[in-house]
Protein: Pilus assembly protein
Organism: Thalassorhabdomicrobium marinisediminis
Amino acid sequence: MLEMLKTFRADESGAVTVDWVVLTALVVGLGIAVLAVIGEGTIALSEKISSQLSAQTIATYN
């Protein structure tokens, strides 16, 4: 049993997985932060476009 615990403690094959999990979490967090910042500007711009389009009149010729 003691030998199995020593082998488990010395095994470093999972260390790379932990690194990738941390890096992936950072990338996902950064993506969410960027979307939050861009999302606010996009909403404001779409509201401006909507109000401009609503104010337009359509000329019809009969």
Remarks:
- The chain has a mean pLDDT of 87.
- The helical segments are 2-10, 15-55.
